[in-house]
C-alpha cells in the first residue's frame, strides 16, 4: 500500500500538484471514507470501482458511497484509468468536472452510461465506440486538469493515453454502464440517425485529439531542441568568456615579458656601447704601449751591447787578477780548507766577529736556536747575519772547516747565501734579509701585512725547489734537518730563502743522539714536530725534510701555529669536502684546485711511514710552480662568447650587433636558425664582421694574465 501511495505522490509531484497522504482506520472501508469526507469537508472524491456485474454495482462500496456520501461531495468512479460514472453533488461548487462532447452540429450534452442487459450483448459495436470516445474525452480532461501537455512530459502523456485506450479495449463488451443526462435518456432509446451522428462526432473528436496530441508532441520536441540549442549557446558564451579572460591574462603576461625583453635589449645595447668605448680606449692605450715597448726594445738592445762590453771587461780583469800574486796578508786569512773561490766566500777572524756584534752583545741578538744564537752585525759596510754555534761536542776544527767549505759552495736563489765563516768563534756569516721570518709574518699579532694565497703558494714552490737542490747536491747530498717557519726568511718582495741548512752535519753523532739536540734556550714549541723515522733510526734522510715540508704546507694553508692534531683536522675537512672551513681567511679566497692540491701534498708528506712519503722530483716542483699562476680574477664578460661562455679567440660581429666566437655563430647559422642567439629577433643578414679591436684586447689581457 505504501508503495502505491508513494507512486501517486510521485505522479502528482511531476504534474506540479500538491498532494498529502491521510491514513485512517475503520471496520468498514466506506465508513472510514465517509468519516474523512465529513471531517475534512471533501467536495471532490475519486474512487476505484470494479463493475463486473449488476450485483456489485448495487451492493458494493461504490453504491454505498454513492448513496451515503454527503450531498456536497461529487464522486468520480474510475476503473483501469478510465472514468466509469459520476455521482453529482447537489450543491454547485467552484470546480465541477464533467465529460463534454462538442461538435459543430450538436449542443453540449451531459451523458452517462446506462446499464445494458444481457440480451444487449449482441450490440457490442455501439457500446465499444461510445466507451472509446469516453476514454478519449477522459484523457482530455486529465490533461486539462493538470496543466499543459509538456508539464507531464511526452513520455508520461503518451503512456497515459496508450494505457487508457488499451485498458478500455480490454473491457468486456457486456459492461453495464449508465449514461446520466439531464433528460435521463438511454442509449438504446436514441434514434439510429442520432447514433450515427454521435459516432461521427466521436470519431472526429478522436481524430482531432490524436492530431492535437501529435502536434503537442512535435512542439515538445521542438521545445526540447530549442532548450538544447540555448544550453549549447550558453556553454559557448561561457567558453568564449573564459577564452577571452585567458587571452587578456596571456596578453598581460606577454606585454610584461615584451617590456622586460625590450629593457634587456636596451641594457645590452648600452653595455655594447660601453664595451665599444672601453675597447677604443684600450686600443689607444695599446698603441701607446706598443710605442713604449718598441722604445724599450731599442733601449734593451743598446743595454745588451753595453752589458757585453762590461762582461768582457770583467772577464779580462779577472784573468789579469788571477795572474797577479796574492798578497801575504790575504793568504794568511784564507786557509786552504776553504778553497780558492775568493769572490763568494771569506774567512773572518774572531776580532771581526766581536767588532761586528759589539762583543756579541744582547742588543745585537736576533734570536736563540737549538744550535746557537743568531746576531745581526756589520762587516765591510755590509749588514750580515752571524750564526754563533755552541762549541761543545764538536769533533774537530778540521771537520768544521770541511763542512763549511761544502756549504760555501751551495748557491741557490732560495737558500740563504753563506758569505763567510770564523773558525775561531765557530761562526757562520750569512747575508741579511731585512724582512721578517715566515713565522713572524703568519703569527705576529702586531703584523697587519697579511700574506695572500698566491704568495703562500709561491713560497711552497720555492721551498720545494730549494729542497730538491739540496737533496740532489753532488758529490754529497745535503739534508736540511731543521726546516720550520722560523728558518724560512722573506725578502722585500716576499720571496723566501731557507736558512740553517746543513747545520746538523757540523755536530758529532753522539750530540745528535742526546736529548738536548734540537733544544736549547728557545721557547717551547719552536721545534714542535719531529720525523718519526728519525726518532727510530736517529738518522737524517730526505724523508725527514719532506715531513717538515708537509707541516709547513699545512701551516701556510690553515694559519694555525699549534701543530698537534693539525694533520688530522685537515684530513677530516678534506674528506668531508669542507676544506674551505679551515683555511686561513687572511690569505683571501683560495682557489679550490690550489688549496686541494696543497692539502693533499701536505698530508702525504706528513705521513708517519716513510714509505707513504712522496719524493721531490723536477716534475713535482714544476707542478707546484704552476699553482700560483692560476688567475684570481675572471675574464670580462664581453670577452666571453654568448653561446659558448668561453673566451673568444676569433670574435665575429653578427647582424644583431653582438660579438660571438666565429666557429660557434657559424654552426648556429648552418643549423638553419635565422634568429639572434641572445635577443631571439630575426637577423637581417647572415654576414659576419671580424672584431679586431676586441681580439687585440683579449690577447693583451691574456698576455698580462700569464705574466702575472
From TrEMBL:
<dbReference type="InterPro" id="IPR003613">
    <property type="entry name" value="Ubox_domain"/>
</dbReference>
<dbReference type="GO" id="GO:0061630">
    <property type="term" value="F:ubiquitin protein ligase activity"/>
</dbReference>
<feature type="domain" description="U-box">
    <location>
        <begin position="634"/>
        <end position="708"/>
    </location>
</feature>
<dbReference type="InterPro" id="IPR001245">
    <property type="entry name" value="Ser-Thr/Tyr_kinase_cat_dom"/>
</dbReference>
<dbReference type="Pfam" id="PF07714">
    <property type="entry name" value="PK_Tyr_Ser-Thr"/>
</dbReference>
<comment type="pathway">
    <text>Protein modification; protein ubiquitination.</text>
</comment>
<keyword id="KW-0175">Coiled coil</keyword>
<keyword id="KW-0833">Ubl conjugation pathway</keyword>
<dbReference type="InterPro" id="IPR000719">
    <property type="entry name" value="Prot_kinase_dom"/>
</dbReference>
<dbReference type="Pfam" id="PF04564">
    <property type="entry name" value="U-box"/>
</dbReference>
<dbReference type="InterPro" id="IPR013083">
    <property type="entry name" value="Znf_RING/FYVE/PHD"/>
</dbReference>
<dbReference type="InterPro" id="IPR051348">
    <property type="entry name" value="U-box_ubiquitin_ligases"/>
</dbReference>
<feature type="coiled-coil region">
    <location>
        <begin position="262"/>
        <end position="320"/>
    </location>
</feature>
<keyword id="KW-0808">Transferase</keyword>
<protein>
    <recommendedName>
        <fullName>RING-type E3 ubiquitin transferase</fullName>
        <ecNumber>2.3.2.27</ecNumber>
    </recommendedName>
</protein>
<feature type="domain" description="Protein kinase">
    <location>
        <begin position="360"/>
        <end position="629"/>
    </location>
</feature>
<dbReference type="GO" id="GO:0016567">
    <property type="term" value="P:protein ubiquitination"/>
</dbReference>
<dbReference type="InterPro" id="IPR011009">
    <property type="entry name" value="Kinase-like_dom_sf"/>
</dbReference>
Amino acid at each position: 500500500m505504501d508503495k502505491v501511495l508513494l507512486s501517486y505522490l510521485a505522479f502528482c509531484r511531476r504534474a506540479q500538484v500538491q498532494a498529502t497522504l491521510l491514513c485512517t482506520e475503520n471496520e468498514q472501508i466506506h465508513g472510514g471514507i465517509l468519516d474523512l469526507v465529513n471531517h475534512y469537508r471533501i467536495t471532490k472524491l475519486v474512487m476505484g470501482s470494479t463493475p463486473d456485474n449488476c450485483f456489485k454495482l448495487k451492493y458494493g462500496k461504490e453504491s454505498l458511497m454513492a448513496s451515503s456520501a454527503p450531498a456536497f461531495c461529487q464522486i468520480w468512479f474510475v476503473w483501469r484509468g478510465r472514468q466509469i460514472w459520476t455521482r453529482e453533488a447537489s450543491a454547485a461548487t467552484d470546480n465541477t468536472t464533467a465529460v463534454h462532447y462538442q461538435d459543430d452540429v450538436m449542443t453540449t450534452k451531459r451523458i452517462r452510461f446506462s446499464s445494458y442487459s444481457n440480451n444487449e450483448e449482441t450490440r457490442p459495436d455501439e457500446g465499444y465506440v461510445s466507451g472509446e470516445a469516453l476514454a478519449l474525452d477522459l484523457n482530455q480532461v486529465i490533461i486539462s486538469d493538470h496543466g499543459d501537455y509538456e508539464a507531464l512530459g511526452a513520455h508520461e502523456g503518451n503512456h497515459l493515453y496508450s494505457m487508457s485506450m488499451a485498458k478500455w479495449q480490454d473491457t468486456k463488451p457486456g459492461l453495464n454502464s449508465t449514461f446520466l443526462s439531464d433528460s435521463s435518456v438511454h442509449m438504446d432509446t436514441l434514434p439510429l440517425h442520432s447514433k450515427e451522428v454521435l459516432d461521427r462526432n466521436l470519431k472526429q473528436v478522436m481524430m482531432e485529439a490524436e492530431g492535437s496530441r501529435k502536434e503537442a508532441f512535435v512542439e515538445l520536441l521542438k521545445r526540447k531542441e530549442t532548450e538544447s540549442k540555448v544550453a549549447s549557446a550558453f556553454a559557448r558564451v561561457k567558453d568564449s568568456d573564459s577564452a577571452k579572460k585567458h587571452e587578456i591574462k596571456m596578453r598581460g603576461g606577454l606585454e610584461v615579458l615584451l617590456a622586460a625583453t625590450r629593457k634587456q635589449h636596451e641594457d645590452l645595447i648600452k653595455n655594447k656601447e660601453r664595451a665599444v668605448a672601453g675597447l677604443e680606449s684600450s686600443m689607444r692605450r695599446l698603441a701607446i704601449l706598443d710605442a713604449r715597448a718598441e722604445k724599450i726594445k731599442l733601449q734593451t738592445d743598446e743595454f745588451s751591447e753595453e752589458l757585453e762590453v762590461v762582461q768582457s771587461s770583467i772577464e779580462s780583469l779577472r784573468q789579469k787578477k788571477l795572474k797577479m800574486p796574492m798578497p801575504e796578508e790575504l793568504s794568511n786569512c784564507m786557509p786552504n780548507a776553504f778553497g780558492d773561490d775568493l769572490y763568494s766566500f771569506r774567512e773572518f777572524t774572531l776580532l771581526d766577529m766581536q767588532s761586528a756584534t759589539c762583543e756579541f752583545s744582547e742588543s745585537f741578538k736576533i734570536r736563540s736556536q737549538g744550535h746557537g744564537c743568531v746576531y745581526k752585525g756589520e762587516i765591510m759596510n755590509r749588514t750580515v747575519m752571524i750564526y754563533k754555534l755552541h762549541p761543545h761536542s764538536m769533533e774537530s776544527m778540521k771537520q768544521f772547516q770541511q763542512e763549511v767549505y761544502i756549504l760555501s759552495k751551495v748557491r741557490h736563489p732560495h737558500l740563504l747565501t753563506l758569505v763567510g765563516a770564523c773558525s775561531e768563534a765557530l761562526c757562520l756569516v750569512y747575508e741579511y734579509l731585512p724582512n721578517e721570518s715566515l713565522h713572524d709574518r703568519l703569527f705576529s699579532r702586531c703584523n697587519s701585512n697579511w700574506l695572500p694565497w698566491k704568495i703562500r703558494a709561491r713560497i711552497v714552490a720555492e721551498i720545494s725547489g730549494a729542497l730538491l737542490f739540496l737533496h740532489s747536491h753532488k758529490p754529497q747530498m745535503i739534508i736540511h734537518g731543521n726546516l720550520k717557519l722560523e728558518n724560512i726568511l722573506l725578502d722585500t718582495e716576499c720571496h723566501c730563502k731557507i736558512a740553517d741548512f746543513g747545520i746538523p752535519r757540523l755536530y758529532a753523532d753522539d750530540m745528535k743522539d742526546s736529548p738536548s739536540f734540537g733544544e736549547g734556550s728557545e721557547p717551547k714549541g719552536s721545534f714542535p714536530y719531529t720525523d718519526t723515522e728519525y726518532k727510530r733510526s736517529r738518522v737524517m734522510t730526505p724523508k725527514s725534510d719532506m715531513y717538515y715540508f708537509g707541516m709547513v704546507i699545512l701551516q701556510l694553508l690553515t694559519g694555525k701555529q699549534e701543530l698537534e692534531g693539525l694533520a688530522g683536522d685537515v684530513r677530516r675537512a678534506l674528506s668531508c669536502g669542507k676544506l674551505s672551513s679551515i683555511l686561513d681567511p687572511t690569505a683571501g679566497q683560495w682557489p679550490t684546485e690550489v688549496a686541494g692540491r696543497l692539502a693533499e701534498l701536505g698530508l702525504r708528506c706528513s705521513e708517519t711511514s716513510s714509505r707513504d712519503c712522496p719524493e721531490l722530483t723536477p716534475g713535482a716542483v714544476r707542478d707546484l710552480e704552476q699553482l700560483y699562476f692560476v688567475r684570481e680574477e675572471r675574464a670580462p664578460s664581453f670577452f666571453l662568447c654568448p653561446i659558448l661562455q668561453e673566451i673568444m679567440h676569433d670574435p665575429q660581429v653578427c647582424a644583431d650587433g653582438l660579438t660571438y666566437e666565429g666557429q660557434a655563430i657559424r654552426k648556429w647559422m648552418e643549423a638553419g636558425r635565422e634568429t639572434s642567439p641572445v635577443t631571439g629577433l630575426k637577423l637581417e643578414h647572415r654576414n659576419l664582421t671580424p672584431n679586431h679591436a676586441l681580439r687585440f684586447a683579449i690577447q693583451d689581457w691574456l698576455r698580462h694574465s700569464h705574466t702575472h
